[in-house]
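User: Predict structure, ligand D-glutamic acid.
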Amino acid sequence: MLKESKIISKIINNSPIAFFDSGVGGLTVYSKLKKLLPDEKYIYFGDTKHMPYGEKTEKELLEYSDNIFNFFLEKNAKAVVMACNTTSSIIYDKVKDKYDLKIYPIIQSSSNILAQLPVKKIGIFATHATVSSNAYKKEIQKHNPDVEVIQIACPEWVHIVEENKINETQSISLVKEKLDEMMHYFPEKIVLGCTHYPFLFDILTKFQPRDLFIDPAVYFAEFIKNDLKQQGLLEISQGSEEIFVSSNPETFKKSAKVFYELNTPPKLVTFD
Ligand code: DGL
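Assistant: Predicted complex:
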């Protein structure tokens, strides 16, 4: 017979890992963790109704996330992945002790590695909210004060991805415009500091080499895997996934396809 603590740990291990973002962007993180840990149960919530998060206030983001965290608590999640740079920079500090949930924020969990890259100048593309918070700059310079950090906001890029306009000529010009602006500063690496931006690799690499760009999700997924392992929270069973959105499930499925083919159609969930 299993001892009580073993039973509890078994129940926790068996619980899902939950992800959220304003839309399809967080799939760039989810797809990587799923590859590393295929035997886990996953829940993904895309808050498409309130997209773009990068243009929202702290109060609004706290309101949306409260519903999302409560939804994850009902689903008995064992951890929540903030697969969103904007919420990591604006509200993580406010929510980290508010819920009985282990929360992984993308910026704080990957900046240590970014700070150790053998470069002196890093460019950051991110949303307005992330850029104004200076979260990347603060986190990277906390680990390495010698790195210069240049930040440029690209709010239009989220719409290109969510509205599935990656192949449109106007989208290519919008991406190139910001890239040209960044290249004036001669960055040695450019961090895609919004989870939607790796969807634009095809456009970005038309103009600059692939290895100039960093998708922090690579480090983030590795960090989550190691941390769950350290805490004895990994599950070895049959993996599963459930995807939820707060509006337009069909558009989500189409836009997601560029990066991630959904096994199941997203389910619609509304909190109001
Ligand atoms: N993908 C999110 C981020 O990483 C939010 C983008 C948005 O909705 O503005 O910041």
